């Protein structure tokens, strides 16, 4: 990498597809033919072996080649039969070819490959309440009478049952990016950015952690993307400008299998062989037999979606005085999505959306119309429907900058962002077939950037205020995953970061952030029991306070070498991990510390040292699902435990 930029707020005016809440921009290194070669190798506990290498070589006076490779392997840190949870097995490579026939033209061709074949993340049973649902008693009564559908003590990382085919996390991807830049004059630059990307992911989870397939899912996803951007930039009478057009197309194919009490349908279907069972409909067994189709939630989804996006943008910076400038930009976006779904109850081979007569197996096709005009009627024996929708948006940006002095810079900006709508991919009944609206954001930011103490201290502070309309929120109701438009939300706060050269050999870097988020209005009109007001909920994954402090101290030793001491402490306040604000998915505040010590040779050509991640072995809940009301359990994911690394670094220049 050449650099990493963390950008707050909507960035769609200048780059990015519908970029609404910020961006992490990673710029890869362009080969220059420098002859540089870098190598880093790390080994550690849990059978860890990491390797990274990069080389930049000249093929001719105008042609340079850069090659980067990486490998990540570890045995995982959650002990369980079969592959351990947290296992790593991935490799990647990038080749970049740079052609510079003149000072006015540059062509960069990059090819990337990634391969990953490993077990899924370590997951834990947070809670199990068999009486809180009806699936668990039925599963124990008809499928696994002696073994409950859970194998773990709540919050224990040790698992006793072997894992089946659900626990996989495989990924294979490739991309080609071609960037051509031409500067016909000192006042004009033209650029073309072409990108093609293909991804195949096969991943799953065993939600209940049990020996039997009580609940989980597995996904097989393919995605192909192509994008093209033409850009022009330049300056006229001190006015700097950039404009362009952008095109994006993506085709995705997702095949999802949901597992819910596997084997229950066959067990209930066998009740039909009991003599005279249906002569007494008050018999509970008769009721279960008649409900066998509705209780088959082993579902197959075959989803296909095509997305096309067109955009045009223009941004300019206008110096009013030598110190004061105005920046204005606008982006016009048009997007279209076409979605097709085929869905089936797998074990009973019956329709998911239309009721099935339990005696004859015939579908009731009296109502095949979903509650949205964006989607067609269900057809093809009650298993398929099509959806199509388009959206357009104009996102402006206005900013002001003022150079108070050589060391103090202030700015203020207001911008709008847009994220397109879409369609839910996992409805479990006809009423769940629906679309959701675009999300819109209005953002305001004020900040000051300073250099103090003879430029030994950099201190930046920003204050932000964000207003969402139709904010998209992901909710889970049993087997159904729904994206709902919460009406309005407000997020405001501040962030301060600093870099300090305390002494010649001691540097500090730190940040402090405050983030207050709330829903101004969120009314669910379709909730069970009538409309429900969710406005009091907190935003998911939004800790109110965050802080970080990192230090590097070099102790000089003989011959110009040094012993380098590294330390890092990060803090995040408590937060909810899902939009429903489930108490069991309320993550406590946490403090994570890292430390290291390296021997750095003269001119930093090579170094060797030891690093410890999560020094205090702090256990932090970082994600999960609460499906107690439907399946009787809640599932969670934790951060990796304390890890040790012995690292060697070498570079030729």
Give structural notes.
The chain has 653 residues and is mainly β. The protein has 4 helices and 34 strands. The chain has a domain at 122-159 and 543-653. Helices cover 4% and strands 59% of the residues. It has a 22-stranded antiparallel beta barrel. The longest helix is centred in the N-terminal third of the chain and has 8 residues, at 135-142. It is globular and about 90 Å long. The two termini are 16 Å apart.
- Please provide the count of β strands: 34
Distance between the termini: 16 Å
Helicity range = under 10%
Beta-strand fraction estimate = over 45%
Number of helices: 4
What is the overall silhouette?
globular
Structural class: mainly beta
Biggest beta sheet attributes: 22 strands, antiparallel, barrel
Q: Report the C-alpha radius of gyration, rounded.
A: 28 Å
| Average pLDDT | 91
- Spans of at least 5 consecutive residues whose pLDDT stays below 50 are none
Task: Give structural attributes.
653 residues; 22-stranded antiparallel barrel; 3-stranded antiparallel beta sheet; 34 strands; single chain; globular; mainly beta
Task: Summarize this entry quickly.
It is globular, with a radius of gyration of 28 Å. The protein is mainly β.
Topology:
Elements (H helix, E strand, L loop, with lengths): L2 E6 L13 E6 L9 E8 L3 E11 L4 E12 L13 E15 L2 E14 L4 E6 L6 H8 L26 E17 L2 E18 L9 E22 L2 E22 L3 H6 L14 H7 L8 E21 L4 E22 L4 E2 L32 E22 L2 E12 L2 E2 L11 E2 L2 E14 L4 E21 L2 E22 L4 E16 L1 E2 L7 E2 L11 E12 L5 E11 L2 E2 L9 E2 L2 E11 L5 E8 L7 E7 H4 L1 E6 L4 E9 L2
Antiparallel strand pairs: 1-2, 3-4, 3-34, 4-5, 5-6, 6-7, 7-9, 8-33, 9-10, 10-11, 11-12, 12-13, 13-14, 14-15, 14-16, 16-17, 17-20, 18-19, 20-21, 21-22, 22-23, 23-26, 24-25, 26-27, 27-30, 28-29, 30-31, 31-34, 32-33
């Amino acid at each position: 990498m050449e650099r990493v930029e963390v950008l707050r707020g909507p960035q769609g005016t200048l780059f990015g597809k519908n970029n609404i809440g910020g961006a992490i921009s990673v710029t890869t290194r362009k080969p220059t033919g420098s002859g540089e070669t870098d190598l880093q190798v790390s080994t550690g506990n849990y059978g860890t072996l990491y390797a990274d290498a990069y080389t930049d070589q000249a093929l001719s006076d105008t042609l340079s080649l850069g090659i980067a490779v990486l490998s990540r392997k570890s045995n995982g840190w959650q002990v369980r039969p079969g592959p351990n949870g947290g296992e790593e097995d991935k490799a990647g490579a990038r080749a970049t070819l740079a052609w510079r026939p003149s000072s006015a033209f540059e062509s960069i061709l990059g090819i990337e490959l990634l391969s990953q074949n490993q077990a899924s993340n370590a997951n834990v049973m947070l809670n199990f309440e068999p009486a809180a649902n009806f699936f668990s008693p039925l599963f124990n009564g008809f499928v696994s009478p002696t073994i409950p559908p859970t194998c773990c003590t709540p919050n224990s990382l040790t698992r006793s049952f072997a894992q089946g085919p659900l626990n996989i996390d495989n990924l294979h991807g490739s991309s080609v990016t071609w960037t051509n830049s031409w500067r016909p004059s000192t006042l004009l630059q033209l650029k073309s950015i072409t990108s093609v990307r293909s991804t195949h992911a096969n991943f799953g989870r065993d939600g209940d952690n049990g020996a039997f397939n009580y609940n989980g899912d597995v996904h097989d996803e393919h995605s192909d993307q192509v994008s093209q951007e033409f850009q022009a930039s330049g300056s006229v009478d001190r006015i700097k400008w950039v404009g362009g057009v952008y095109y994006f197309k993506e085709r995705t194919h997702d095949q999802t299998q949901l597992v819910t009490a596997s084997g229950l349908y066959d067990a209930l279907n066998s009740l039909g062989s009991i003599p005279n069972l249906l002569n007494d409909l008050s018999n509970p067994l008769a009721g279960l037999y008649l409900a066998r189709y509705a209780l088959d939630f082993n579902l197959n989804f075959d989803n296909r979606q095509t997305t096309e996006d067109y955009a045009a943008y223009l941004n300019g910076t206008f110096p009013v005085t030598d110190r004061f400038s105005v920046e204005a930009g606008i982006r016009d976006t048009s997007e279209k999505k076409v979605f097709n779904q085929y869905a089936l109850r797998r074990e009973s081979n019956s329709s998911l959306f239309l009721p099935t007569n339990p005696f004859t197996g015939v579908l009731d096709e009296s109502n095949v119309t979903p509650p949205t005009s964006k989607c067609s009627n269900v057809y093809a024996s009650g298993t398929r429907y099509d959806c199509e929708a388009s959206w357009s948006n104009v996102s402006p940006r206005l900013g002001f900058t003022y150079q108070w002095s050589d060391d103090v810079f202030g700015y203020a900006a207001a911008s709008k962002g847009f994220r397109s709508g879409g369609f839910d991919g996992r409805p479990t009944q006809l009423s769940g077939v629906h679309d959701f609206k675009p999300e819109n954001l209005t953002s305001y930011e004020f900040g000051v950037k300073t250099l103090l103490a003879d430029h030994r201290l950099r201190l930046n502070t920003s204050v932000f205020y964000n207003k969402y309309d139709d904010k998209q929120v992901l909710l889970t109701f049993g087997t159904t995953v729904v994206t709902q438009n919460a009406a309005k939300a407000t997020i405001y706060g501040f962030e301060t970061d600093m870099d300090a050269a305390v002494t010649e050999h001691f540097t500090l870097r730190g940040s402090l952030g405050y983030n207050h988020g709330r829903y101004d209005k969120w009314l669910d009109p379709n909730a069970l029991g009538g409309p429900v007001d969710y406005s009091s909920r907190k935003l998911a994954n939004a800790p109110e306070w965050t802080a970080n402090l990192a230090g590097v101290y070099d102790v000089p030793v003989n011959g110009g070498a040094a012993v380098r001491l590294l330390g890092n402490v990060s803090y995040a306040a408590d937060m909810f991990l899902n939009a429903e604000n489930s108490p069991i998915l309320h993550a406590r505040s946490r403090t994570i510390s890292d430390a290291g010590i390296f021997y750095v040779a003269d001119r930093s050509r090579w170094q060797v040292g030891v690093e410890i991640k999560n020094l205090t072995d702090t256990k932090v809940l970082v994600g999960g699902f609460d499906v107690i009301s439907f399946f009787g359990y809640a599932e969670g994911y934790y951060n990796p435990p304390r890890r040790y690394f012995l690292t060697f670094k070498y570079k030729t220049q």
